[in-house]
Description:
CATH topology of the largest domain: Rossmann fold
Structural class: alpha/beta
Oligomer: single chain
Amino acid sequence: MAEVRARVEFKVGVGSKIDAEILSFKGLKTDKEHVAVIFKQADQSQDIPLVRMHSECLTGDVFHSSRCDCGEQLDETVERMGESGGIILYLRQEGRGIGLYNKIDAYRLQSQGMNTYEANNHLGFGDDLRDFSEAAQMLLALGVGKIRLVTNNPKKVKELKEHGIEIAEVVNTLAHIKEGNESYLKAKVSHGKHLLKF
């Protein structure tokens, strides 16, 4: 079982105006440095907190790439949790688990006409190599066993349930369509079965 290692207050969001705490963990099964960002002490004050598992996306989260909607989903969630409270599990699983450099190679293939899944497959990877067992570990370490999950991805729901987390509700994010990401979003719906409404 993972243990919480440190809890630090800071401000987050587009305007760095939303109060939150960041937590690090020890005892996870891999050496990945996942963190939890907690709003309004939701791990202690809410029976069924709002939770988002957000996999790291340097290109989307930091640079707001035109190729995906990751940064917009993260911003939407931070704003929502700034109002209602909640927990973001920020998971170091870049590019659906293939890593940053491989994701950049996949971008090159997408520029040649492949969708996001085809590009990953062409590079020798599965559709989605992410493992959400450590997210469940993190939640249990926080004393959270029942959640309202912010996601459009049925894989996340399935894996959390398999690792002992009860999902009381699934809360979808918006479809953040912008120039350059519509085919990416359509592939997530048709291939990944994501619950996105255009």
